[in-house]
Structures are given as structure tokens and as C-alpha cells.
Design a protein that fits this description.
Blueprint (H helix, E strand, L loop, with lengths): L1 E5 L4 H12 L3 E6 L15 E5 L5 H8 L4 E4 L6 H6 L1 H21 L4 E7 L23 H20 L2 E7 L1 E3 L11 H11 L3 E4 L5 E2 L1 E3 H13 L6 E4 L5 E2 H12 L5 E4 L14 H7 L7 H14 L1 H7 L1
Parallel strand pairs: 1-2, 1-4, 2-3, 4-5, 5-6, 6-11, 7-10, 8-13
Antiparallel strand pairs: 9-12
The chain binds nicotinamide-adenine-dinucleotide.
Length: 315
């Protein structure tokens, strides 16, 4: 299939491109002008790299031309930054996605796979693990923009037959995750551990999250290209909860020394717990995560160790 991966040069996107190429698909990456190609440098010949701005409808029109499936992995904001300017969050993410849907319809694209957020759309959970039909009450604008896009995907399917699947991904971790942002606790903790920096934990470290290795997220996305899936919304997570303090403990076991952790005031939008119910993914995709958490941490630590100098210059 001819696949367009929006944000294909990023963390999840680059792993997805690898998976698609290994499965024989043609991959076009849509990325910001000047974005480093480092994550896909080993596949430079196989990838059709298209530079453009997601906020520019003309660029989207050109990018979707002749494509069959679109994987939408661009978000202009993170949960934290989204609350600083909800106007920017909604205008950049939702309006641009509406332009994308128009371009996709005009180009007769077969399907859109949207990377939504299992960690933010539900808000404070009423039950754990959280099923897809749980109420949605996000505590950040980012969760609202993801849900709004989900609704527009449903509307376009209803009105125009443009097929879609929504992957509500929990907390992915692993190689190539940016270690210097406000998202991706595991990458941040490992990188700081290797640098010998203090690790800041918002709250008392008891917050529980559902961490999933990025390769398991990719296997789920690839299943979507193989199966004819009628379910539109699918949680993708490990289905297992670990507290931030437990994560620190696991990283300490791998690096072999005690980490320098300090605790500060929790952020208002952080929910106390988030563990996804993944039985739907299991049933409709025949998928379940297979990377053991400790093994995943070993791989991630190896990656940040081997790429330490390059990463230090990159960010
Ligand atoms: N990482 C997580 O914890 C997580 C969890 C759930 C869902 N998601 C979603 O998965 C998707 C991918 O996440 P990621 O962690 O790989 O992000 P990432 O930042 O590593 O990758 C996103 C890519 O999008 C590109 N991009 C951003 N703005 C653009 C623009 N205006 N024009 C062109 N390209 C642009 C960036 O250059 C980047 O390479 C996002 O939609 C995110 O919301 C991520």
C-alpha cells in the first residue's frame, strides 16, 4: 500500500515507517522543513521524504496525492503546552486536520489511522482498566483536541465514507523518544540518570501510568493495515500500571546506581492513574503487547548510552 506518515520523522512515526517498509509498503513521510532525518537515516533510500507544514492546506493537498492510507501522527502541542494556549492547540491541530480530511477525500484516500491519546481523553478514570466506552472528560486541551478530531473522523465517515481507525495510545516509551521534553517520563528519567542530573517528579511518584514499548504500538498499527477492522476506536496500551516510583526503581536496576530524584508539586492536569483496557485490541486485531517492561528498559538505556553524544547535540 501507499502510506503517508504525517510526523514520520518523529519518535513513534519513525518506528512505524520502519515497520511499514519491512512489510513491503511504500512510505511517504510528511515532515517539517529542516526536521532532522536522523531517525530514518538508515532507510533514506526507501523513504519518500516530503517537507511541508501541517498548518498549510496546500502542502497537505500535495502530500496526500496518490496515497491510500494516511497515518496521522502530528500534534503541534503536548498535554502541558496545550493548556498554555488552548486557542493555538485547537486551531493548529483541529483546523489543520479538517484541511487534511478535505484533501484526503479529494484524493480518494482509503483510510486514515489517527494516533489519539489514551492517557488524556478519558480524564480521571471512573474504572480501571479503562475501556473505550468510558466517559471522556479530559483535563487538558490536548485531550479535547484529540477527541474533537475523533468526532470529525466519525462525521466524515458518516457523510462521505472516508474510513478511519483511532488508536488511543497510552504512554509509549523506547528508542528515539525525545528525552528533553515534558512528555515521555521514561526517556527523560533515563537521559537524566545517564547525565547524573536531578530527576524531577511532579507529585509524590505514586501516579500510575500504562507504559508500552514503541515496537508494540507499531505492531498494533501494522495489524490495522492487514485486518479489515470494523471497530473505530481501539485502546493501545500494556494494560498494566506502574507508578513513577516503580519506574525509577526499574531504571536503577538497569543502570546499577541510585538516581537523584526530587519531588515537586503535581501538575493540575495529571490524572492519578491511567491503565487501559486492551481487550478490544486483543479481540479485533489479535494483538497483545509482547515486550517485557524490564527488557524494554534495558533496550532504551542501551540506546541512550550509545547515542548520548548525538542526543546531547540534537536537543
Ligand atoms: N509520545 C507519547 O507519549 C504519545 C502518547 C499518545 C499519543 N501520542 C501521539 O502520537 C503522535 C506521535 O507522537 P510522537 O511522540 O512520536 O511525537 P514526535 O514529536 O516525536 O513526532 C511528531 C512529528 O511531527 C512533526 N511535526 C510537528 N508539527 C509539524 C508541522 N506543523 N508540520 C510538519 N510536521 C510537524 C515533528 O517534526 C515530529 O517529527 C502524536 O500525535 C501524539 O499526540 C503520543
Amino acid at each position: 500500500m501507499k502510506c503517508l506518515v504525517l510526523g514520520g520523522g518523529g519518535f513513534i512515526g519513525s518506528h512505524l515507517c520502519e515497520g511499514l517498509i519491512h512489510n513491503g509498503h511504500h512510505v511517504r513521510v510528511f515532515e517539517k522543513e529542516g526536521r532532522s532525518k536522523v531517525n530514518l537515516s538508515h532507510l533514506e533510500k526507501e523513504v519518500d521524504w516530503f517537507e511541508g507544514d501541517f498548518l498549510n492546506p496546500e502542502h497537505l493537498k500535495d502530500a496526500v496525492d496518490n496515497m491510500e492510507v494516511i497515518f496521522h501522527l502530528i500534534s503541534t502541542t503536548l498535554p502541558k503546552s496545550s493548556n498554555e494556549s488552548p486557542v493555538y492547540d485547537i486551531s493548529s491541530n483541529v483546523i489543520s486536520t479538517l484541511h487534511l480530511l478535505d484533501a484526503a477525500k479529494a484524493a480518494d484516500v482509503r483510510k486514515i489511522v489517527f494516533f489519539s491519546s489514551g492517557g488524556t481523553v478519558y480524564g480521571v478514570p471512573q474504572i480501571i482498566p479503562i475501556p473505550e466506552d468510558h466517559p471522556t472528560n479530559p483535563t487538558c486541551s490536548y485531550g479535547i483536541h484529540k477527541l474533537t478530531i475523533e468526532k470529525y473522523l466519525a462525521l466524515n465517515y458518516y457523510l462521505h465514507g472516508l474510513d478511519y481507525t483511532i488508536m488511543r495510545v497510552s504512554n509509549p516509551y523506547g528508542e528515539r523518544q525525545r528525552p528533553t521534553g515534558s512528555q515521555g517520563a521514561i526517556a527523560v528519567f533515563i537521559y537524566k540518570a545517564l547525565k547524573g542530573d536531578k530527576i524531577e517528579i511532579w507529585g509524590d511518584g505514586s501516579a500510575v501510568r500504562d507504559f508500552i514499548h514503541v515496537s508494540d504500538v507499531v505492531t498494533a498499527a501494522l495489524k490495522l493495515t492487514q485486518n479489515n477492522v470494523s471497530e473505530k476506536i481501539i485502546n493501545i496500551g500494556s494494560g498494566v500500571g506502574l507508578s513513577l516510583n516503580e519506574i525509577i526503581g526499574e531504571i536503577e536496576k538497569v543502570v546499577g546506581y541510585k538516581l537523584n530524584v526530587y519531588y515537586c508539586k503535581s501538575r493540575g492536569f495529571d490524572v492519578p492513574s491511567n491503565i487501559l483496557d486492551i481487550s478490544r485490541a486483543n479481540g479485533v486485531l489479535g494483538w497483545s503487547p509482547c515486550v517485557d517492561f524490564f527488557e524494554g528498559i534495558i533496550k532504551a538505556v542501551d540506546y541512550y548510552k550509545s547515542n548520548f553524544i548525538q542526543i546531547s547535540h540534537q536537543f
